[in-house]
Amino acid sequence: MSSLLVRGGQRLTGRVEPSANKNAVLPVLCATLLTDAPVTLRNVPEITDVERIVGFFGELGSKVEWDRAAKLLTIDHSTVPAGAKATLPQAMRASIMMIPGLLVRLGEARLEHEVKGCTLGAREIDPHVEVFKAFGADVETGGKEIVFRRRQAGEAVRMWLEYASVTTTENFILCALATNGTSQVVNAACEPHVQELCDFLELMGARIVGKGTSMVSVEGGAELGSADYTFSEDYHEIATFLALAAVTGGDISVRNRHPEHFPLLDRTFAKFGAEVEHADGWSRLAAPEQLVVRENFTSHLITKVEAAPWPYIPADLLPIFIALGVKAKGQTMFWNKVYEGGLTWHTELSLFGAHTLLCDPHRLITFGGDALAPATVTSPYIIRVAIALLMVASSIKGESTILDADPIRRAHPGFVRNFVALGADVQWTD
């Protein structure tokens, strides 16, 4: 694992062109398995999970050309031979979204039991298994593998999810496209990256009704064709750079062609005294002299930031707001309603001198505004926790080290380069 050496205290200023959203790119790559027509993808980030999927496609026999400098990826699965076999990548959670395409193409898919992703606590695959079974797949477990086999061409189904899971919703949509009739999922996830997957599928010829809502209908049976698709900017990365402006007392503008996704994020920044402006395709945050937690009108209640499935604040962004809570004068409760392991890293903040209190596995209180000192901290394998620790270190004069900071590379290939361009003094070390 690599570390980041941070010499903090600089006021960050400038403009940033963010990368595409990993959580949009990966399901789109998985969805290309549903067609033999050539697909062109633009603004593809050079991240480790894309490398893994491209490598898997190569093992499968697909023709893939990736111009990393141009962020251009072309894929042709028509070259996959009958009876091809390949082991799904274990080191990323997105592997499970390749199963619908492999069932259609090869009739079978194999997945290791311990499919991995960020260390956010228990992340079951039962909802996915229910989807695959509903669409006519047999599921067997044996040894270290789960084997999925396409028993028959499934019929259209209507399914009400227990939880608005992003990847379960995406797997439902991918399975439904290969089934005759109209299927419907209730309590569907509606995050912007789910909407991007639907945009891509519609470009290929899919008929989807209700994207961006909790009830999505998919008309199956249509042959999917070629597509030329450009990924949008990652709203996670946009929000992160805006938060960097706030925490360092800076002034940063970030390219953002979809400000319609930001009203609640803007209100959350305002809880710390930071105002976001959107104009002409850019979002800007010019930090106040001091971040101060806004008091509730109901004075006996602490100011809260609640993270849950969209359209709540995304759980993935909660760490960057915790970093603001550490810097802002006042008390804030952060409530992660998604992952029970998403807040245990708060102990690393105490090494900077921050005062935090973990109420239970889902709720954390920050007592912000105290003077902080440089420190050496260790990031868990969670992308935006590594970034949150980097944010706090950047706001403190002196030299800090973020150990095991590699998770940043999983989602943001040019993050440190952009960070330096804004005036930060930070570098990778082994």
From TrEMBL:
Molecular functions per Gene Ontology: UDP-N-acetylglucosamine 1-carboxyvinyltransferase activity
InterPro entries the record matches: Enolpyruvate_Tfrase_dom (IPR001986), Enolpyruvate_Tfrase_sf (IPR036968), MurA_subfamily (IPR050068), RNA3'P_cycl/enolpyr_Trfase_a/b (IPR013792)
EC identifiers of the protein: 2.5.1.7
Protein biosynthesis found in the keyword field: no
Subcellular location: Cytoplasm
Spans traversing the lipid bilayer: none
Catalysed transformations (reactions): phosphoenolpyruvate + UDP-N-acetyl-alpha-D-glucosamine = UDP-N-acetyl-3-O-(1-carboxyvinyl)-alpha-D-glucosamine + phosphate
Any Gene Ontology CC annotation: cytoplasm
Pathway terms, separated by semicolons: Cell wall biogenesis; peptidoglycan biosynthesis
GO biological process: cell division; cell wall organization; peptidoglycan biosynthetic process; regulation of cell shape
Main enzyme class: transferase
Domain Enolpyruvate transferase: 6-418
Keywords, alphabetical: Cell cycle, Cell division, Cell shape, Cell wall biogenesis/degradation, Cytoplasm, Peptidoglycan synthesis, Transferase
Signal peptide: none
One of the Pfam families matching this protein, by short name: EPSP_synthase
Regions annotated as coiled coil: none
NCBIfam families with a match to the protein in the record: PRK09369.1 (NF006873)
UniProt record similarity statement: Belongs to the EPSP synthase family. MurA subfamily.
Protein name per the record: UDP-N-acetylglucosamine 1-carboxyvinyltransferase
